[in-house]
Amino acid sequence: MTKVLMKGNEALAEAAVRAGCRYFFGYPITPQNEIPQYLAWRLPEEGGVFIQAESEIAAINMVYGAAGAGARVMTSSSSLGISLKQEGISYIACAELPCVIVNMQRGGPGLGGIQPGQADYFQAVKGGGHGDYHLLVLAPATIQEIVDLMGKAFDLADEYRNPVMILGDGILGQMMEAVEFPDQEAPTVLPQKPWATTGAKGRAPNLINSLYLDPEKLEQHNYHLQDKYQKMIEKETLAESYLTEDAEIVLVGYGSSARIAKAAVDQARKMGIKAGLFRPITLYPFPHQEIQAACQHAKQVLTVEMSLGQLVEDVRYHLEFRIPVHFYGRVGGMIPTPREVWRVIEDLVKEGGAS
Amino acid sequence: MITVFKRPEALTLSNTHYCPGCTHGIIHRLVAEVIDELGVREETIGIASVGCSVLAYNYFNVDMQQAAHGRAPAVATGVKRVHPDKIVFTYQGDGDLAAIGTAEIIHAAARGERFTTIFVNNAIYGMTGGQMAPTTLPGQEATTAPKGRDPLVQGYPIRMSEILATLDGPAFIARVSVHNPQEVAKAKKAIRQAFEAQIAGKGFALVEVLSSCPTNWGFTPVEALKWLENNMIPYYPLGVKKSIMNAEDSQNLAEEG
Predict the structure, then answer these.
(1) Residue A2 class from Cβ within 10 Å (0-12 exposed, 13-18 middle, 19+ buried)?
(2) Interface predicted TM-score of the whole assembly (ipTM), two decimals
(3) Which residues pair with B117 in a beta bridge?
(4) Which of A49, B1, B47, B101 registers the highest number of CB atoms within 10 A of its CB?
(5) What backbone phi and psi angles, to 5 degrees, belong to B91?
(6) What tens digit of pLDDT does each residue of B156-171 get?
(7) Using one digit for the tens of pLDDT, what is the confidence trace for A79-126?
(8) A277 min Cα distance to partner chain B (Å)
(9) Is residue B9 part of a domain?
């Protein structure tokens, strides 16, 4: 294995190819353009297909068709483009189609800006479109972690027959870091998909569908989906805890914000403050037990976000409102600095009494 | 005993939900007969749309995907690119294809996607209750154009076949009708050609089929067929709008048309 210097978007695209993804449908939008640009030349090399669709809506419906036909397929976009895809994502979740959707978030709402943001947290973890459904949401914090999670993302999508979202941001998409790709090639044997539409040769026809006109059947299907989400909650949570064993103030952040928070934690430790960091890697399912363990000695918790307070709501919920949970965030493409976060820690310790 | 008439294998043994006098049933049968005759039932993947034909997946005895409103051409693109050796078709109405799905059909056609679209134009939204469609004729009443479509207020109908025929991607575009047995026979020939264009890998193919909606037009089935002939055909002329199939294929249809 050798280290190569790569942009996050390009590393993600290469990792997807190595995970066996052979179909990509997307539409240009900053700051994720290097993903489609990379796959436009890379997928044909592997006998795959890249299509620049006429819209985000068309792209996600191409994903629906290709996933229903049994392929490993991905789309990517950013914030407002992900909003446009929500109709299709809801259909994909209901029809139980495996696929990977990448959101390199930028500042919103509306047309917003093109600088990094994390204000799509609610949209990502609560469903996003209409109806009761969830995506399985993975939030890498480094480019190496993007690479390491791509194979898992496709495997989870296949295992649960559920869309998986990689929730990144403009920092992760645009920055360059040294990454190592595992030596093994793309999996040659992908999971069997006997439900896929491949032509009804010698079998009864298959149907990919999200329409249930009989309310009893639609309710049953909803319960079936909920059972799946329950299994994810039990089996699929991932998190990193950093210096939390004795931490009296625990910072919580995901993705790029977690890296900023980590620098602030290091500064706090230098100053003799027992600070730690909890970083959820799966945002849905949220690592409930893991955050409880990480905060067992915490007197205060502080979430660090590039939003005006979204993750903080889930943190309060999963800590069962037993510990004061504070919030610090910047938005619109403004990025919190370690110094800003450190000052918030300093103030909280003065006021709240963590040593 | 000789069997002279039977259910095509590409249709399931089920009663349709279509209203009495609706011509969707005829069009379903024509598509199924063509699939049978080409011997591709086990190689075919159909895409159902939203509208009256939303339940088409219950009637075609082939693998099916149900698509969001207007998105069938995008879904078909995904399916066909994964399975270029299979036969893929969409079955869409005029609200689906000519309003909410205009972008998807135009771009699939422009890309020359190698699938076949059956476009059923009955100049009205049937399933939702007779609302104005992009294809509703000037003066035609609809529940959302209660005094009749006034072009100065609601604009003009769209002739999708003519628009699509201007593109380089399509291999075959035709408009047919099913208001009498002769036209039904011609419609079947066009549908067959549209599937043959796909099998030959020549590009996108679409057949627009003028269809009646007695329920929402407020006519008896017989009156509805007459209204179609007298009002729709003058606005939506029948015939092949574009073909890059070999000369004989197009000629046969033109001679009969």
Answers:
(1) exposed
(2) 0.96
(3) B90, B206
(4) B47
(5) -130, 105
(6) 999 999 999 999 999 9
(7) 999 999 999 999 999 999 999 999 999 999 999 999 999 999 999 999
(8) 42
(9) no
